[in-house]
Model the fold of this input.
Amino acid sequence: MYHLPVMAETVEKYLVTDPAGLYLDCTLGGGGHSERLLRQYPGLRVIGIDRDEEALEFARERLKAYGARLSILKENFSMSSEVVRRAGSEKVNGMIADLGVSSHQLEEKTRGFGFDSETLDMRMDPASGKSAGDVINEYPEEKLADIFFKYGEERHSRKISRAIAAERKLSRIDSAKHLSRVVYAAVGKREKIHPATRVFQALRIFVNDELGNLERLMAGLSGLLLPGSRAVIISYHSLEDRIVKNAFRDMAGSGSLTVLTKKVVFPEDSEIRNNPRARSAKLRAAERV
Done:
């Protein structure tokens, strides 16, 4: 299994208003959410986009049986409106965005997302921009501390950045495994999470401009959705969830959206037992007025 879709039944419940409509999967990944929709509703069509070519190749093979009901494009979800137009439509009947990193990306040693990876890349699209390794080895100590604090909410950001600056004088930090060792030496063991969790989160967010892309997606949301259609967004940390919550609130205040989830929706305990990576998922949904 490439990646288990998180809260799939809940997504379907909130998302589908027209069983013969056109839906946008902004984070296609391995195709889990799209496959459920296509299987459950024979008249439904999906546009799936992702930045990760490995994910797209897997999804193309997994979902090939659905033929013309599925259009797959490589693109950043901040360009969703343009992608929909490129696929021959102006607006969609619903949009799903499952943010964050997939199980496959975490487990694939060459991608650099996991703590024991042999590389230090972390780019969703390995062909674009600076890698996490470039950032760790080239950015000034003060800049690294700012990144760890802003995007990882890491309270030991300055201690960790000092340790990294000292280590890279001795040798280039060229693997996630190496970086994990440096962070562990700087802050020691933590009870509930791996000591490098917040540093890795911060690097991934920074390298992929995840918060900026999410802000751009939310800014264009009301123009992407048909009246009566819905947006369902799953986030995995407070920085993402805050952007979604505030954008929904502002659009509801302007009268363009109705928020369907007055409180954030969490996965059931049974799902967390079957898929531990779902434990931090937070779902919010809204409907276009």
Notes: Residues 260 and 286 are 5 Å apart (CA to CA). The chain has 14 helices and seven strands.
